[in-house]
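Chemotaxis protein CheW
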Amino acid sequence: MSEKQYVIFKLGSEEYGVDIMTVREITELKETTKIPDTPNFIEGVINLRGSVVPVINLKKRFTLEETTINKNSRIIIVTIGEKQIGFIVDDASQVMTLKEEDIENPPEIIAGVDRRYIVGIGKREEKIIILLDLIAVFSEDEKRKIENMKM
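Tokens:
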């Protein structure tokens, strides 16, 4: 029986998880510098210890209702290819271990939705956690643009 650890974060009232092995770090929200002519879900860039890191607003990317950024808001940093990417979330405060049998495939009813980034549905007690692949949030074209961003 295999287990995996997930970083759990919130977008609004919903809980999401990402494989801890894909997360480089979690940092407090920093002010972003806007970059012209980028998609609206790209908030801008931050300076992370000398590295320029693009920051994505996951609520905008997923077309979720936006809420006010507050003291609990965080940036989850992941690596895509050679680039680090930050994702703004409402809160990221715990690591959860899920057993293989506690994870189901996404329901087929979501078939009309682009669900390439939903890797599973985690169940823990009465909680449901939507498990994501943050790298798959981007189309191949968007990944290329991110890789080619001049920083």
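Residues 103 and 122 are 4 Å apart (CA to CA).
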